């Protein structure tokens, strides 16, 4: 049974045909309907669709990107989401240029996954899941200086027009990070 969405997430990359499209589909499956998950790109070419490589890797995870259509990011839409996760530090900067009020709710995918284990999620007292995730994001934002990695280590490699090995590495990085986020969501939901 699919539940009603209780919180919302937005993924950003460049073309919205590889990294953010895959992340959207993967997190939707992990959250099984408890979250609304969307994605967009900073430099979308709407004539393009997800690549065959990313569709193949998605299918290996039981996901389909056949119906995915690339979309441009829009500031107002971004603001409506509880957390915005970007593929790279440069994308994070572009999101903040579009919607500066998101400062405490926008992270790279890898950055947020590195910060979550440093937060005592038991201390976040919010019954509403949307408010809980926003409070968690605020706490993560306060801890940003603890991420001990150069900016390029916070980026998910762009596989577009590269070998399948790069696609595999990119999706592996995404899945590892999103699995951490999903584990925190399952912990939060079990306490509710």
Automatic annotation (TrEMBL):
Residues 7-184 form the Phosphotyrosine protein phosphatase I domain. It holds the Pfam family LMWPc. One of its GO terms (molecular function) is protein tyrosine phosphatase activity. It comes from the Bacteria. This is Phosphotyrosine protein phosphatase I domain-containing protein. It comes from Rothia nasimurium.
């Amino acid at each position: 049974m699919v539940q009603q969405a209780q919180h919302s997430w937005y993924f950003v990359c460049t073309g919205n045909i590889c990294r953010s499209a895959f992340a959207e589909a993967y997190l939707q499956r992990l959250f099984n309907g408890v979250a609304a998950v969307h994605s967009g790109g900073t430099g979308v070419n709407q004539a393009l669709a997800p690549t065959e490589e990313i569709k193949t890797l998605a299918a290996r995870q039981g996901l389909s990107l056949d119906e995915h259509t690339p979309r441009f990011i829009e500031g107002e839409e971004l603001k409506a989401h509880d957390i915005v996760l970007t593929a790279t530090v440069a994308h994070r900067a572009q999101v903040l240029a579009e919607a500066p009020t998101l400062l405490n709710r926008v992270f790279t995918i890898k950055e947020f996954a590195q910060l979550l284990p440093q937060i005592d999620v038991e201390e976040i007292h919010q019954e509403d899941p949307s408010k809980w995730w926003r409070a968690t994001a605020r706490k993560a934002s306060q801890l940003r200086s603890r991420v001990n990695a150069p900016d390029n280590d916070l980026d998910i490699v762009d596989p577009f027009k590269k070998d399948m090995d790069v696609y595999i590495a990119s999706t592996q990085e995404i899945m590892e990070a999103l699995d951490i986020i999903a584990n925190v969501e399952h912990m939060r939901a079990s306490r509710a």
